[in-house]
Amino acid sequence: MIEVMTAQLTPLRERRDPRRFFHATYLRTTEAVRAELSAGGFDDPAWVEQWDVEFARFYLDALQADLSGGSVPGPWAAAFAAAGDRPRPPLQHVLLGMNAHINYDLPQALLAVISDAEFGDASLMARRAADHRHIDRVLATLVDRREGLPDAPPSRPTVWDRLLAPANRLATKRFLTEARAKVWANSRVLAGARQRDPADYAQRLAELERLSAARVADLTRPGNVLLRLAARGFGVILPADSDPQHGTRAYQEGGP
Predict the structure, then answer these.
(1) Are 190 and 238 in contact (CB under 8 A)?
(2) Angle 83-85-90 from CA coordinates, rounded to 5°
(3) 218 CB contacts (<8 Å, ≥6 apart)?
(4) C-alpha torsion angle, residues 33, 35, 38, 42 (rounded to 10)
(5) Which tens digits make up the pLDDT trace of 201-237?
């Protein structure tokens, strides 16, 4: 997957496509997860690797569809449209992509690698939740490195930039942790719908797409995206099922 992402980054750079900022950042994140896998940092590395591949595929499929003029899910349509409407800071493009990918793609990636029977296995799900939380720590380490955004042009930071830098790092880590925790809850809601009826699952997935697209669209407005996220909350939440195994109680007891 890293090789595919690396190859796709080249034409984005050549065209100076603003989507390269998210793509390069996501590539760096994928490389960090791969390094942690090699270091034995996960309870079930084979499962994490499969999950990581499925997760990346949602983004890569959306990117390829957009480049070829095909249909793109709502959250990605909003994020990709922002790449061509007006100049934006590189960080905004990264955050738009992160919101689309985490809020919409990640719950689906979890369902791709966790069966209905596995969702009912409390011991196994505790292990899956632990690996899910460990990725949060990998991402937090990347934020703490204080490296510049990949592919972003060098710039001299202003006094205001330096003052905001610690707050931005804290907000980014909070975003990653809180949004991914909500993803875990949303994946259980989707799992419950998948078990009940395909139509129910399709309806819940469409609801997640709508909520995620609305969040990305809101973040395309002018202003500091991290501050807006901090003010309005990170991630999106699907209303919980009446079945406690897949609703809010399941998240509180079995989630991160």
Answers:
(1) yes
(2) 40
(3) 228, 232
(4) -40
(5) 999 999 999 999 999 998 888 777 766 776 666 789 9
CA angle 11-15-20, nearest 5°? Answer: 70
Contacts 24+ apart (CB under 8 A), 44-51: 44/127, 44/128, 44/131, 47/113, 47/128, 47/131, 48/131, 48/135, 50/113, 51/109, 51/110, 51/112, 51/113
d(CA 52, CA 148): 24
On whether residue 123 sits in a domain, the answer given is yes
Q: What is the number of structural domains in the chain? A: 1
Could you read off the pLDDT of 5-16 as tens digits, one per residue? 999 999 999 999
Is the pTM here over 0.70, yes or no?
Answer: yes
Asked whether residue 179 is domain-assigned, the answer is: yes
Token representation of residue 254: 């079995």
Only one residue has tokens 């690797």, namely 49
In a domain, 156, yes or no: no
**Residue 94: DSSP 8-state:** H
Q: Which domain holds residue 74?
A: 2-147+164-254
Residue corresponding to tokens 């590189």: 90
